Structures are given as C-alpha cells and as structure tokens.
Amino acid sequence: MFDRPFRRAALSACAAVTLTTTLVTSGCANSAPDDEPDTTLRAVLSDPRRTTYPLTLDNCGRKVTFTGPPRRLLILNGTSVAEVESVVLLGLQKHVLANAQRYGVSDHPTMLRDVQALPDGGFTMNKNFEVPAERVLSAKADLVLSTWSGGFDARRGLATREQLAATGVNTLVNPVNCALGKPDASPEEKAAYEGISIESSYEFLALLGLVFDVQHRAARVSAELRRRVEAVRARVHGRPARKVLIAYPGMAMMNVNGLPAVMTGRLTDEVVRAAGGVNAFAGRSRDVTSTLNREQLAAAEVDVLVVGAFEPNVDLDAEARKLFAAFPQWRASRTRTYTTASDGVFLGPLNAWAVEKIAKAVHGDG
C-alpha cells in the first residue's frame, strides 16, 4: 500500500487520457482538432463532458474498449484501498460486484463503513493475498480493476488480462502503477511510477469519471480535494518546517528488525511537505521501511510523531507513549507532540485528510 504540465484545450466528451492510459478511439474521436490534441487526464477534470461510447483506452500498453459504463466491477486487493475509496467517493457503489480491498481504519469519517457495506464476493485470498484466478474468471464481472500490473500475474496464481479479455471482461490498472509488477514496463510507465504524487489520485478519479460517465462528479470531487490540500499549503507557507516521523506500529512485520514501519517515499514525503513539515527520512529509499534499525531510528530528528493506524481497536495514544518511552531523545518525546493518521498518507483520494491532521500537529493552527 503505498504536478505535471497542463495545457487546456478544447475537449469533446471523449477527452484524451494519458500518463499510461491513453484514449485511442471513441464514437466522437474526430470532434477535437487534430492539430490540438489534449493529452492529460487532468483535461477530464478541467472541462468535464459526457462520455461517448464506444470508448477505447490504452491502459498500460493494452487496448481496452468500453461500450458503456461497467455494471459489474470487481476490485482486486493488491494491498491497496486507493481504488475502492475512489469508487466510493464517486458514488459508484451500485456498480460494484465484489470488492477485495480492505483496511481496518480510515482518516475519512465514513469511509470504513462505506467500504464494509460493499459486497465482498465471499472470496478467500490465495497465499499472495489476492483473489485466485478461478474465482476472478468465474465471477461474471465486466470490469476487473487492479492497483498494479502484478494483479494480473499468472505466476501469482492470478487471472491474466489476456484470459479475461478472451471471456469478454475488461481490465484496468491504476495508471500510476503500470510499471509495478510489469517486467517490460516502458520508460513512460516507469517515470509515472517514480513520479507518484497527490496528483496521481486526482488522475485516477478522472479515469474512473471517464470510464463510468461521471466526469462532472470526478471534477467536483477532485476540485474539493485539491482545494483542501492547497489551502493548507497556503496557510503553512513560509513557516519553519519541522521534522515529522510517520510510524505504523501495527505494520512491524514489514521491518526486519521488528520496528514500526516508518513510511517514506515521494508520496508520503509530499503529504508531509504539504502539511508544512519535512519527513524525518525524506529522500530515503522505500527500502527504509523494511531495513531501518533501532540506532537509525533513535538518531532521527523527530519534532512531530505521526502514529499510523492499521487495525481497528488499537489504542494509538498508548502506542505514542510507547514510542516516546523507547526513543526519549526525540524532541517529540519531550514535548509529547503527535497526531494519528491511517490511509491518508498512502496513494488514494484521502490525502487531504492526512495533510490537514498533520498540519495541525506541526503548526498548531495549520
């Protein structure tokens, strides 16, 4: 679970889509000027129209054609909640046949309830924590959605995109993760993955808006999320940045030394920066989560602790006290400065909630 240049141009209802999802053809493909193509997912958000079908997309190098809005959506796990939460925020629950994405808590006040209300298909996950191939192939979905390309890897016991296409089932991968689990990923796909950001979540909302013909709703939701993040950026601009550590005690299984999973990387670092802080491990490889040792954690500069929530019914205040006792040298330990977060620091549409909470801890009135 873990701002591109934008040029506005005249759009048709079949707005072009890129990153690693590109509009190929549609029923109105010739309505936009040939010499002025719009090439960003953000175009869907800036000038939303009705989708015209058939709609054909190039998604992670695979052509996918929709003759209408999907009616039976199966969401694979992929240890993500970005996709199901996007579906919920766009009000697409009635389209969900089955959802395999789950997270025990949420920064959004009603998200956990809304996700739990979705049908789960009665799936039993395989050893790779994913829906087995035979269950996906027999589910009678018309769209299977994965957070990463590896969600369709036969070596993991999963149904492939080719197998599903042969039975008339469309597949989509979250465009920012095309390179993840794809050995032959293109340079563009690798660049998109390395450039993951808060903006990536808006782009995925735009893709869903286009596919499900809810472009206006996607534009409204994205605009509000962006407004909230930018409002915090504006409030904290120019203030001294304090060092923030994001640690998930419930994910200690991810660390070889049994320490809380410390989150870093481009998206997590951006969430902290938007809140007016600096990740205590900013710029470090994502491997820091699994390899960090006690000495490195003790030596970190930590002004603000963010205790990450992974499971329900965990006393996060008690977890904060344990960390303060274990690492008394942190400034945060002396001042008892901390807040909590859960899914808002990961890829998904809830970054605004985490930015607001962290900003308040970092700057008081952020």
What does this structure look like?
It holds the Pfam family Peripla_BP_2. InterPro entries: ABC_Transporter_SBP (IPR050902), ABC_transptr_periplasmic_BD (IPR002491). Belongs to the bacterial solute-binding protein 8 family. The protein is of the alpha/beta class and 366 residues long. 33% of the residues lie in helices and 14% in strands. The chain folds into 2 domains: 42-227, Rossmann fold (3-Layer(aba) Sandwich); 238-363, 3-Layer(aba) Sandwich (Rossmann fold), CATH 3.40.50.1980. The chain is built from 14 helices and 12 strands. The longest helix has 22 residues, at 215-236. The protein is globular. It starts with 20 loop residues before the first strand and ends with a helix.
Topology at a glance:
Blueprint (H helix, E strand, L loop, with lengths): L20 E6 L15 H5 L8 E5 L2 E5 L6 E3 L6 H8 L6 E4 L11 H6 L16 H5 L5 E4 L14 H6 L3 E4 L13 H8 L3 H14 L3 H22 L5 E7 L12 E2 L3 H9 L2 E3 L8 H4 L2 H6 L4 E5 L7 H11 L4 H5 L2 E4 L9 H13 L3
Parallel strand pairs: 4-5, 4-6, 6-7, 8-10, 8-11, 11-12
Antiparallel strand pairs: 1-2, 2-3, 8-9
Organism: Actinomadura miaoliensis
Keywords: Signal
Family: Belongs to the bacterial solute-binding protein 8 family.
